[in-house]
Amino acid sequence: MDSVPRRKNSVEGGRGDGEQPVEVMTGMRHECGVFGCVAAAPWPTQIDVAHVICLGLVALQHRGQESAGIVTSEGGNSKNFHVKKGMGMINSVFNDEAMKTLKGNLGIGHTRYSTSAASEEVNCQPFVVHTAHGVLGVAHNGEIVNCDKLRNLVLSRGVGLSTRSDSELITQALCLTPPGAERDGEPDWPARIKNLMKLAPLSYSLVLMEKDRVFGVRDPYGNRPLCLGKIVPINNVYPGEIVEISKTGIKTITIVERPHDDPQAFCIFEYVYFARSDSIFEGQMVYSARLQCGRQLARETLVDADIVSSVPESGTAAAHGFSRESGIPFAEVLCKNRYVGRTFIQPSTRLRQLGVAKKFGALSENLKDKKVILIDDSIVRGNTIGPIIKLLRDAGAKEVHVRIASPPLQYPCYMGINIPTKDELIANHLDPIKLAKHTGADTLAYLSVEGLKLAVRENIDNKEHKSVGHCTACLTGQYPAALEW
């Protein structure tokens, strides 16, 4: 999830919700976004809560564009939630007519991309279920790594499931009474959440709404991001933390410890790729971490050149860092057409390559007879970098040296990121020398894994504390211990 200013008390996060999507893509899919908001007392509020949530989802639109949903409630003894969900972008789902129906003092929202459930309206979130103790709304961020085990447990309790979504599975698991709890028949939602976290330690950030409060929950490994605040400052939800947001404010219910005292496993690719540059994680702005990646990349892979540039906008922060560290001036060489859709939706390699030419134009005056260092944040399948290099050479570039501000992607992710299969990842087939030849670059080099770790930890407070730790599974194949369960 990204950190953005919010009105009143709110909680938000970023995610994917577990069947493989049908589109042909050139890169990773973004994670989904979750957002929750509770108006401060007195109620009924004068704040348009649904509009606040909608603005929050707009800020998280980059994390998912398949579907969106908002659920609101007046709170108190309200027996009904107001729900609006649909396929498509946020501005197409939430028109003026839809927003008028979303009355309430609190609510949660979701913008989605699929990882485990098909891109269909039945899988749109938030999910709403009617329990013996009232209505419950759930929006989920991540992917349950032991979902088969949890699914069998839920089914054994006589609970039916209508989708293959991890998110519905979480919703139904929360309706199970935890052992030794709720003797007087009153629901203990914090105890139920804690029970779920012990049954499924990875990977999620959740926002849950019942009656007059919203819970924010982050998995014990801290793999998916989640933060909360009023307007400013934004605070991270700690790994394993359950926070309760009500009209009286925000409080921590409990913090569930990681199994076996395992290290934290915050997704390092949040810094590289997924998050907005103005997001704040672990006390630092993502932009500054990307700038530091560029500095480290220059230390490791410097080559003689006239200018440093980037593939906009993904590599721009790192390119500025590379330029500052190396002393080689930064200059734009590509002009991005902001009205062209993503190239990954094209059904063939040829059409994707044509899409690249349509998406970018070369600034020939900055390029002619120049040795160029071109920075990008990552290479996944490697389908688009070749056409970009050709574009630069056709515009007069003398040399093109590609530098990637992250290590080679070599392994799939099972925690909510839709990384292509191992066989589809170009780094598993071509080393940097062969990849440079394949793409038409003079040279190509990646940032090292240790270099990436150093870069993202540079500005973290207490960087050596045990609470600091990053998941590098997609780069190293070393997964958090919970995946061994």
UniProtKB/TrEMBL annotation:
Name by which UniProt lists this protein: Amidophosphoribosyltransferase
Active site: C32
UniProt EC number: 2.4.2.14
Sequence positions that bind Mg(2+): S314, D376, D377
Main enzyme class: transferase
Free-text remark on how the cofactor is bound: Binds 1 [4Fe-4S] cluster per subunit. Binds 1 Mg(2+) ion per subunit.
Binding residues annotated for [4Fe-4S] cluster, in chain numbering: C267, C413, C471, C474
Domain Glutamine amidotransferase type-2: 32-291
Gene Ontology terms, MF aspect: amidophosphoribosyltransferase activity; iron-sulfur cluster binding; metal ion binding
Enzymatic reactions: 5-phospho-beta-D-ribosylamine + L-glutamate + diphosphate = 5-phospho-alpha-D-ribose 1-diphosphate + L-glutamine + H2O
Pathway(s): Purine metabolism; IMP biosynthesis via de novo pathway; N(1)-(5-phospho-D-ribosyl)glycinamide from 5-phospho-alpha-D-ribose 1-diphosphate: step 1/2
Cofactor(s) required for function per UniProt: [4Fe-4S] cluster; Mg(2+)
Region (Disordered): 1-22
Keywords: Glutamine amidotransferase, Glycosyltransferase, Iron, Iron-sulfur, Magnesium, Metal-binding, Purine biosynthesis, Transferase
Source domain of life: Eukaryota
Any Gene Ontology biological process: 'de novo' IMP biosynthetic process
UniProt similarity note: In the C-terminal section; belongs to the purine/pyrimidine phosphoribosyltransferase family.
